[in-house]
Each structure stands twice: as C-alpha cells, then as structure tokens.
Amino acid sequence: MARAATTSDVFNAIAEPQRREILVLLRAGERSVTELAQELGITQPGASKHLRVLREVGLVHDRKAGKQRLYGLDADGLRPVHEWTGGFEQFWNESFDRLDAYVQDLKQTRNAE
C-alpha cells in the first residue's frame, strides 16, 4: 500500500532530498535560514518551508539569537528511522561477510598464481 502524501512523519519529511541536505548541514552546528538557503542554492522562503516541515516532525529545533533565528539538528527525532533501518542490519552483515569471503578467495587465487 502506498504511503499517504503527507509530511506528518519523519520518513516522509526526509524523503525530500533538500531536507536531507539541511540535516547534513546542521550536523556541523546551528545555522540561520539565510545561511542554509545560500548553501543549498535555494530561496529563503524555500528553505523556511523545508525547515518548518523538519521542525514539525521533531528533526530540528530553532531559537532566537538577536534578530536571527538559528536552526539546529534534533537527532533524537531520527530514532524511528534508525530503529527501522536497524531491522536490516543482519542483511547487511551477511552481505559484508559474503563480500569478505569473496575477497579472501580472490586474494588466495592471486597468491597461488
């Protein structure tokens, strides 16, 4: 069943690439909407729209600093994504184990030649 076209949850909010870019930029620390807009090459209203969505789902927080409003990452909001993707950890571990075995076989084959 297709997901509803809403940004009411974290998964839908981060489905938009520029919102993910904003989260990456905010990992380095707080930034104003103007700084984020410049770094993303988008308009300030566009950046504000993305920040509003991210704030509504609990991924960013904001605070007033003089005349500016600074936005920061609220990484705890990513917990549902982390928990969901963690369910695939066994798959990735098995894939890496198979890749490691393949590389070891390849090394042994080359050393034997």
UniProtKB/TrEMBL annotation:
SMART domains: HTH_ARSR. Gene3D superfamilies: Winged helix-like DNA-binding domain superfamily/Winged helix DNA-binding domain. Signal peptide: none annotated. Residues 1-93 form the HTH arsR-type domain. GO terms for molecular function: DNA-binding transcription factor activity. InterPro entries: ArsR-like_HTH, HTH_ArsR_DNA-bd_dom, WH-like_DNA-bd_sf, WH_DNA-bd_sf. Pfam families: HTH_5 (PF01022). NCBIfam families: HTH_metalloreg (NF033788). This is Transcriptional regulator. It comes from Streptomyces uncialis.
